[in-house]
Amino acid sequence: MPKSYVVCQAPVSELVKEFRVPLVTASNLKFRYSSSGPWTINDVSLSIDAGTSVGIVGESGSGKSTIIRLLSGLLTPQEGVVSVDGKNLSEWSKESPRELRRFGQLVFQSPRRSFDPRMRLGRALSEPIRALEKRIPDADELGLWMSRVGLTAELLDRYPHQLSGGQLQRVSLARAMSIGPQVLYADEPTSSLDVSVQAQVLNLLMELRSDLGLTLVLVSHDLAVVGRMCERIIVMSGGAVVEEGTAIDILTNPRHEYTVGLVEAAKAVSLKHA
Amino acid sequence: MLEINNLHISIAGRSLVKIDHLVVAPNERLGIVGESGSGKTLTVLSILGLLPTMMKVQGSVIFAGQELLGRSENDLAKIRGRDIAMVFQDPGRSLNPTMKIGRQAGETLRLHLDLSKSEIKERVLGLMHSVQLKDPEKLASRYPHELSGGQQQRVMIAMAIACKPKLLIADEPTTALDVTVQQEVLKLLLKLSQESDMAMVFVSHNLGVVQAVSERIAVMHDGEIVELGPTAQILDSPSAEYTKELIGANPSIPDAQELRRLSGSRFRTGKGV
User: Fold this and answer.
1) With an 8 Å Cβ cutoff, is B271 touching chain A?
2) Among A247, A191, A197, which Cα is nearest to B266's?
3) Quick check: helix, strand or coil at residue B101?
4) Parallel, antiparallel, or unpaired: how do β-strands A79-84 and A22-31 relate?
5) Contact criterion met (CB below 8 Å) for B95 and B152
6) What is the DSSP annotation of chain A?
């Protein structure tokens, strides 16, 4: 059954909000997938404050998925620097990769492709704890995480193909949260899901963010979702940041020509009803 | 123009779709919405006899006075593309990857009309122009993978309208496209439908998209139509509980007032909104 959107409250103190502590910053990042190809990310600088929820929007090929892979350390930029919690990301990644992985976790678009099809979900869910904390979580701990994302512990014995897309995406959220990250990077986490399941997963994401005090970086092509989930929006086009601001500014008073077109197109198909 | 009565689609004794009555009037644009598995695609595929043979279809689908269910493949092939055309979700999968765009776009014309090679070429370029494809001559000599998703879907639409069908069935035609391209394709479909007196059945899970093109909406759930009515009535005063829930699950872009409310709530601890 579809569920309506709810609004959750993040336990971010007024103090953090007031002082705007940068948690992840990127300076003049440049990245390309092949040494002779065009720049996928071309001179991008941005800053993400602790405790905020930031949406990255843009069309296919604008570089939004690449930028979160650079910010989370999955990719290394050819030029520029990423700083996370005041440390240089590439140095941190070499010195203590486990600590870096614990700091920031990713959730991807397709839950089916995020799980090893031959691994039971209990084992898959325990992988980050095994790898980063060097211990084997017991059934109670895993069951707790399953219940935290609205699933039963019985599913831990199943294989990924035995769950629906929405259920699997819940497990991938639980897996990401199980090691207590500070930042969650979510790359189109609901675009492969049906509209009602999408609402359920987004509500869950907001609840987790609220309860655990996460910084959320949400990549999406859907301005309606980003407008409801994020307080700041970064607009990307052609591998560059064309505009950045609060959700209110971007959605009600876009300045860049590209953002104006994007907002106008999204509003044309945005549901209007009494 | 199209009348569906007591349509029942089943597989191995399990009922998938059950529609008592559904009518599409000439020039009308009807939207069918629902979640995955609600039966919307099965319904439209049954109109053109495109369902897998393992599915059992019973009932009646009358188009322009002719019964379509039970017709031979040859009969249906004459109707497909000429009287009723269809545009699918993924243009990349609908186009033949080994055939150049120009030749592919001319297939419907070759099949249904007695035209010379040069006439077909001329008509194809005209069609590509009417779906607002820039530089049609150059595009006609390209392969599908050399076109963007938006360009591919325009080619599919050009092929669909080639024989001026009376009814166009569009099954999630913009789901695979970016939002700006989506808007252009929707505008194009609306314009073509209005200018050429073509009725349209528009299938989507996205209520906002359906609202942008449809005059009436049928809401499907578990293989049945749970509500049917004018677009404004369905969206502003839905009567079925499921429709209300579906509307609640479709996010809309928040306006300034709502954004301010959301912005405050995201930061404040404790008190709910």
Assistant:
1) yes
2) A247
3) helix
4) antiparallel
5) yes
6) -------------HHHHHHT-EEEEEEEEEE-SSTTS--SEEEEEEEEETT-EEEEE--TTSSHHHHHHHHTTSS--SEEEEEETTEEHHHHHHH-HHHHHHHEEEE-S-TGGGS-TTS-HHHHHHHHHHHHH-S---HHHHHHHHHHTT--GGGGGS-GGGS-HHHHHHHHHHHHHTT--SEEEEESTTTTS-HHHHHHHHHHHHHHHHHHT-EEEEE-S-HHHHHHH-SEEEEEETTEEEEEEEHHHHHHS--SHHHHHHHHHHHHTS----
What mean pLDDT comes out for the span B197-205?
93
pLDDT digits (tens, 9 = 90+) for B158-192: 888 888 899 999 998 888 778 888 888 888 889 88
Asked if B250 is an interface residue toward chain A (Cβ–Cβ < 8 A), one would say yes
CATH number of the domain residue B258 falls in: 3.40.50.300
pTM of the model: 0.82
* A186 pLDDT above the threshold of 70: yes
- Distance (Å, whole) CA B203 – CA B227: 15
Of A60, A196, A271, the CB nearest to B208: A271
Cα–Cα distance, A59 to A63 (Å, whole number): 9
- DSSP single-letter state for residue B152: H
Asked if A2 lies within 8 A of B248 by C-beta distance, the reply is: yes
CA dihedral A179, A184, A188, A194 (to 10 degrees): 60
* Residue among B211, B253, B265 whose CB faces A227 most closely: B253
Which residue range forms the structural domain that includes residue B190? 2-92+165-266
- The answer as to whether B8 is a domain residue is yes
Residue B212 is nearest to which of A7, A9, A269, comparing CB atoms?
A: A269
Strand-pairing partners, residue B167, are: B84, B199
Q: What are the chain B neighbours of A231 within 8 Å (beta carbons)?
A: 262-263, 266-267
pLDDT classification of B113: cutoffs 50, 70, 90:
confident
Rounded distance, CA A151 to CA A167, Å? 7
Give the CA diameter of chain B. Answer: 74
B241 has a chain A CB within 8 A of its CB: no
Say yes or no for a CB contact (<8 Å) between B36 and A228: no
Q: Give the pLDDT confidence of B74-95 residue by residue, as tens digits.
A: 999 889 988 999 998 888 888 9
Handedness of CA B50, B56, B61, B66 (dihedral sign): positive
Q: Which domains does chain A have, with CATH numbers?
A: 20-268 (3.40.50.300)
Q: Which residues of A touch B186 (CB under 8 A)?
A: 268-269
Number of structural domains in chain B: 1
What 3 state SS string does B181-245 have? HHHHHHHHHHHHHHHCCCEEEEEECCHHHHHHHCCEEEEEECCEEEEEEEHHHHHHCCCCHHHHH
Contact residues for A50 (Cβ-Cβ < 8 A; gap 6+): A12, A16, A21, A22, A23, A182, A215
The sheet that has B55-63: what strands, in order across it? B14-24, B2-11, B55-63, B66-67
